[in-house]
Amino acid sequence: MMLNLFRSFTVFFVFALAACANLPDNPANESSGQIVITNVTAIDAVNGVRANVDILIDGEQISAVDQDLSASTHSGAKRIDGTGKYLIPGLWDAHVHLAYHPDIGHEVFFPLSLAHGITYLRDTGGHLDKLAEARAISASDAIAPDLYVSGPLVDGKNRVYAGQSAGTPDLSVGVANEAQAIAQVDKLAAQGVDFIKAYEMLSPTALKAVATRAKYHNLPVTGHSPLSMTVRQSIMAGMKDMQHLRNLEMDCAVDPQSLLAERQEKIAENKEKYGGKLRSSLHRLQRAKAVAAKNEAVCNELIAVMKKSGVSQTPTLVISRFLSRKLYAEKRWQDTYAWMPKSIAKGWLERSVGFADREPTASDIAYDKWLLAMVSSLDKAGISILAGTDSPIAFTTPGISLHEELAMLVEAGLTPMEAIGTATIEPAKFLNLQDKQGSISPSRKADLVLLNADPLSDIRNLIAIDAVFKDGRYLDRNRLKQMRDAPSKLD
Ligand SMILES: [Zn+2]
Fold first, then answer.
1. Ligand 1 centroid, distance to 148 Cα (angstroms)
2. Stated pTM of the model
3. 135 CA to centre of own chain
4. How many angstroms separate the alpha carbon of residue 223 from the centre of ligand 1?
């Protein structure tokens, strides 16, 4: 989460949660037996393009990829003609918040995600009690995306998301020192989180303790590089994945050390209880001047450190470009709000229309260019890039926002195949799941998306979804449309 523009939230309505209301069980078109998709073009970032292959799905797994799985050898299997169609692995949105808003939880995210080909969600910050029902549904036999969670952001003593305003809901815990950091990571590990999210107000000592303890528990650490440190120091401390390219501009400027000294001075002077204002003031103080003072040699040296340390980046361009790209001002984007619960759709539309006249400032535009250039440099250097959106913050409609993110990654210079990789194998690698998913190969999960158009000729063809397979179950176009429309029936 990153923006503080959203203080004018309407009153939150907590409605009774009906666990699988949007995901009816056992419709007629599902199958949990064998399925053969025939004569399809399989596309994934590990194996490349394989034209005219047959894919055998057995239960929840892919069991064969072959030139000809003839009807005689799999006579009991349901056969789906893939002629003229394209098959990709199920997609990830690697940055979402199911606990950000009480009316935009799993009952919105799960159906909208599946309807848009997303079979995996990485929740990057929220209290576990608020995610408990989503985790239970995801782990059950119900048709739902796989959900991977960090639990609350592990922030410093002056935490940013402490519930102090509607725009900063309580999504975090604060740790003031090494002992508290260790205790918090131990607690999250015991609660079964999949990774740790470190946050922006941590002290260098606390971040180091978080990363070291997480490593002890075999949990990868993602997050925002703390403002009290340089990005290089965060990497050295053990951070493995970074969100929004956050604070990278300061370490790609002419003199990162003097910028750090200036931040440390302001942090030491801080009298505010919550970190939100301090964080915003530091970004205001340094972002624009750091962007203007970008130094390629300094930046390339940092990128080399990332590469050597195996650090990935989740740029979340769709939200990082909020002020400059103004997606929310476009009619076609506002139309996607109709898929949201009624109260949300109304509020988002009013505020989108209200903001629509705001022109980007010169520094918004400079930052936009900086973001795209940075993604291009990271890509050229072979840094792992993950596709994430920060949905539902800043009018990023769940599901469809991932497709915008992928288009923006292509705009930044990735090939469509690389973009597909950012939403499949790359997030899988972050969680060490690359042998279970992320490619179309035997023994991988049968989480797949069948497309009517070639995503390599235009990344926007990823939205031309004919069917989704989740755990080997076939969700046809009608079923996906029902899922897309289900949240709009909520108040
Ligand atoms: Zn976020």
1. 14
2. 0.93
3. 17
4. 9
Please tell me the distance between residue 382's alpha carbon and the centre of ligand 1 in angstroms: 24
Q: pLDDT band at 44, cuts 50/70/90?
A: very high
Q: How far is the CA of 62 from the centre of ligand 1 (A)?
A: 33
Between strands 172-174 and 153-155, the pairing is: parallel
Q: Tell me the CA–centroid distance for residue 391 and ligand 1, in Å.
A: 8
Distance 392 CA to ligand 1 centre (A): 9
pLDDT at residue 8 above 50? no
Q: Write out the residue range of the structural domain in which residue 317 sits.
A: 90-436
Domain count along the chain: 1
Q: How far is the CA of 473 from the centre of ligand 1 (A)?
A: 31
Buried b (16+ CB within 10 A) or exposed e, 332-362: ebbebbebbbebbbebbbebbeebeeeebee
Kindly report whether the peptide bond that precedes residue 341 is cis, defined as omega within 30 degrees of 0.
Answer: no
Cα of 59 vs centre of ligand 1, distance in Å, is 34
457 within some domain: no
Give the integer Cα–Cα distance in Å for 133 and 359: 41
Q: Does the pLDDT value for residue 15 go beyond 50?
A: no
Listed in order, strand segments (DSSP E) in 168-301 are 172-174, 196-198, 221-223, 241-243
- Residue 32, judged by CB atoms within 10 A of its CB (0-12, 13-18, 19+), counts as middle
From CA 352, how far away is CA 366, in angstroms rounded? 23
73 lies in a domain?
A: no
Rounded to the nearest angstrom, the distance between the alpha carbon of 390 and the centre of ligand 1 is 5
Report the 10 Å Cβ neighbour count for 76: 6
Helix, strand, coil percent values for the chain (each to nearest 5): 40, 20, 40
Q: 388: domain CATH number?
A: 3.20.20.140
Whether 184 is in a domain gets the answer yes
**CA pseudo-torsion sign 368, 369, 371, 376:** positive
pLDDT in tens, 61-119: 999 998 777 666 677 889 999 999 999 999 999 999 999 999 999 999 999 999 999 99
d(CA 177, ligand 1 centre) in Å: 24
